[in-house]
Amino acid sequence: DDSLRRFVTFEPRANVAMSVNLLVEPTRSDADAGFIVLQADRAHPMSGSNCICVVTALLESGRVPMSEPETVVRLDTPAGLIVARAACRNGQ
């Protein structure tokens, strides 16, 4: 069923140039969170720029604890496990 993707990526809520990062519980025990990239054309297995957005949101919202100067965040994606290293300073 593709209705959720169409609902969040088509007008009037979005447009063809936008994407949605759907945060989900990870299926892997070694991941902090999971996410799926939804775009107007399809669901994508991975996107580097979307990964940066997800890591930033997880850290700044407190969903994943931040530790300075670097925090490692593990993301479960349809493309596999992504390990991101975020440079952290002054709570950002």
Poorly predicted regions are none
Any idea of the CATH topology? Diaminopimelate Epimerase, Chain A, domain 1
Mean pLDDT across all amino acids: 94
Distance between the termini: 37 Å
Mind describing the biggest β-sheet? 5 strands, mixed
Number of DSSP helices?
A: 2
Order of helices and strands: HEEEHEE
User: What is the oligomer described by this structure?
Assistant: single chain
Q: Which second-level CATH architecture applies?
A: Roll
Instruction: Decide which structural class fits the backbone.
Output: alpha+beta
Helix content: 10-25%
Alpha-carbon Rg, integer: 14 Å
According to DSSP, the number of beta strands is 5
* Binned strand content: 25-35%
Count of domains: 1
CATH superfamily: Diaminopimelate Epimerase, Chain A, domain 1
Concise structural overview:
The protein is α+β, with helices and mostly antiparallel strands. The protein contains two helices and five strands.
